[in-house]
Design goal:
106 residues, mainly beta, 1 helix, globular, four-stranded antiparallel beta sheet
């Protein structure tokens, strides 16, 4: 977004606890961590991933990624990079995730 001095600055991420873990074609792959409480009352963290276009302010949740990287995964591991490839013609998407998880495959 342009400022009064002519400089262009990106709008802030949708949430304060959000970090960028990848980008492609104007889209940022973002990882957000929120405080949560389980049904048993245990405090935990909820991890969500989504694509965000800072030019249009459009945000798309990556629900499928949450199915693979559940909250238990993040008790011991971190996501370092997310790479997204898509085909606009057929709507298919490929998401690759690089983590520090070395014991077993996802």
């Amino acid at each position: 977004m342009p400022t009064h001095d002519g400089a262009h600055r990106m709008a802030p991420f949708p949430e304060n606890s959000t970090v960028c873990v990848g980008s492609t074609d104007g889209w940022l792959a973002l990882h957000r961590t929120d405080a949560a409480t389980t049904a048993a009352g245990t405090k935990t963290k909820r991890h969500t991933f989504f694509l965000h276009n800072p030019f249009t302010a459009t945000t798309i949740p990556l629900a499928e990624l949450k199915d693979i990287l559940d909250d238990a995964f993040f008790e011991w591991n971190e996501v370092y990079k997310v790479i997204i490839r898509s085909s606009c013609n057929d709507g298919d998407h490929l998401v690759a995730v690089m983590t520090d998880h070395t014991i077993t495959s996802l």
